[in-house]
Amino acid sequence: MSPYVFLIISISLFLGTSLTLFSNHWLMAWTGLEINTLAIIPMMTYPNHPRSTEAAIKYFLTQATASMLVMFAIIHNAWMTNQWTLFQMSNSTASILMTLALAMKLGLAPFHFWVPEVTQGISLSSGMILLTWQKIAPTALLYQISPTLNMKILITLAFLSTMLGGWGGLNQTHLRKILAYSSIAHMGWMAIIMMINPTLALLNLLIYIIATLTLFLMLNFVSVTKIKSLTNLWNKSAPMTTAILLTLLSLGGLPPLTGFMPKWLILQELVSNNNIIMATLMALSALLNLFFYMRIIYASTLTMFPTINNSKIQWPYPQTKTINIIPTLTIISSLLLPLTPLFITLMH
Questions:
Q1: How far is CA 296 from CA 169, 179, 231, 306, in A?
Q2: What is the predicted pLDDT for the residue at 292?
Q3: What is the spatial distance between Cα 237 and Cα 14, in angstroms, rounded to a whole number?
């Protein structure tokens, strides 16, 4: 891709998200979402391949449908309340439509079918942006209308997402599909707490983005897209393999890693609000995610091919800026659990 084209796409992605984050008018927020969608599509089609083109078309059709629902909800709310302000989503029908539309944009179940297929069809770098940056703008809108959301619909979407995100990833062999199902499950954790404690939902999103970003950068760096490719990665680079495994366990929410913090706080918040059954179901669904992460770890470490000699093969890594940022991101995505009291203080 031309550097100038890449620069224009990157600026458009940043401007689209910023417009949605900082706007106070529904029309401007919708425009930001559209800029975001249209900016990433050229990136998804590169390199030119029938699978990437198909993935881009699937993504465009899904996002166009969601955008149509968003606009319908905005117009209905404006018609009923005579308000275009972002915080004035007081009409119940408009609120339900907006929740469903944003759920489709985020890939919450049962609107999740596009996420694994699109992620599998595009490159690792495009998949990284799709599963991290593209979640920010819809989440910001959910956060701003959180007081008017329908609790029953949100809980249903969240529970379905965590369960289907866990079940869907069980029989996958491609890492991009596994990360897509992981994204669906994490969006479910974010949705379940959005009405009770929206700030905690943002913390969950932040930690998810950091961990997923770290994992995608490492996988892109070592050019690994399948579980079977991880089996001989240890002999090529033990430190990189260790970092990948730690980040996977953190995404799964295993203590004492960073990913355990949002799950712990969310379960604590649900229990304190007398949602004990929901907290139990969410905790059980987290085991499904942890299982397929453990399967990857088993495949990459306990089933290594035997080496002929005792020396490790040195992989000729190019000296790029990417390798310098990976250790920092790995530390952040693995070792922030002791800072939990600080995050609790900041949230209150």
A1: 11, 12, 9, 18
A2: 85
A3: 34
On the 0-12 / 13-18 / 19+ scale of CB atoms within 10 A, 225 is middle
CA distance 219 to 205: 21
- The domain spans of the chain are 3-347
Nearest C-alpha neighbor of 218 from the set 237, 244, 196:
244
pLDDT per residue as tens digits for the range 280-299? 999 999 998 898 888 888 87
Residues found in the chain: 348
Is 71 in contact with 30 (CB distance < 8 Å)? Answer: yes
- Centroid of chain to Cα 118: 14
Instruction: Identify the burial level of 319 via C-beta atoms within 10 angstroms of its C-beta, where 0-12 means exposed, 13-18 middle and 19 or more buried.
Output: exposed
CA dihedral sign, ordered 101, 107, 110, 112: positive
Q: 314: which DSSP letter?
A: P
> Is residue 47 reached through a cis peptide bond, with omega within 30 degrees of 0 on the bond before it?
yes
Distances (CA, A) of 268 to 154, 160, 193: 18, 20, 11
With H, G, I as helix, E, B as strand and everything else as coil, classify residue 226: strand
Torsion of CA 200, 204, 206, 212, to 10 degrees: 180
Q: Are 126 and 5 in contact (CB under 8 A)?
A: no
Q: Which of 238, 192, 185, 236 is nearest to 208 (CA)?
A: 185
- Long-range contacts for 37-40 (Cβ within 8 Å, ≥24 apart)? 37/63, 37/64, 37/67, 38/12, 39/9, 39/12, 39/13, 40/9, 40/13, 40/126, 40/129, 40/130, 40/134
Asked whether 258 and 334 are in contact (CB, 8 A), the reply is yes
pLDDT digit string (tens) for 197-241? 999 999 999 999 999 999 999 999 888 888 888 877 777 777 888
Could you give the count of Cα atoms lying within 13 Å of 135 in the half-sphere of its Cβ?
29
C-alpha span between 211 and 258 (Å, rounded): 9
- Look up the pTM and report it: 0.91
